[in-house]
Structures are given as structure tokens and as C-alpha cells.
Model the fold of this input.
Amino acid sequence: MGVYLNGYSVLVEEIHAFGNQDDGIFLSGGGILRRNTASLNGSNGIVTYRCAVLENALQDNGGYGLAAELGVYGSNTIDGDGSPGIANFAAVTQNNNACDGSTC
Done:
């Protein structure tokens, strides 16, 4: 596991999660993930619960680029991750993410 946080009002910004055996970044309980990179992690790039996930770059992770539950996500770039690049569990998308060159 790269970064693992559980709490409210957390800001995760400009973290480079690279080559971890499990998830690159995990945040539960509410917060903002902004301008991070997660690549070549063994499982998912970013996993969130009740968070805003914005402007992240996710590449070549073993699982999903982004797994989001009950939050909002937008302006993320996902390339080479599991298909589909995003696992959406009742989260709200801004419909401006890029997955392998296509809008997702």
C-alpha cells in the first residue's frame, strides 16, 4: 500500500504513488485528492470513499485506475489500467475524464 488515509477533511495533493504492491492511494471518510499520479501499482491507482477526485494522472496500474464510491470525480487521465479504467460505485462523474484517449 502506498498512501492509506482514513478521516475527514483530508487533502491529498501532488503525491507520486509508484510501484506499490497494492493500491497506490487509498482515502476513506471524505476529502480531496488533487493533482496526484499513481502508476505501476500492483492493484488500483486510487481508491476513494466519499471524496472529490480531481486532476489526477493514473497509468499502468494492475487494477482500475480509479475506484470511486459515493464521491465525485473529474478531469482525471487514466491510461493503460484495467478495463474499464474507472470503477464507479454510486459516485458522480463530471464526464470530463480521459480513459485511454476517450472520454469516460
Summary: The two ends are 26 Å apart (CA to CA). The chain has one domain: 3-97. The chain has a mean pLDDT of 95. The chain is about 0% helix and 55% strand.
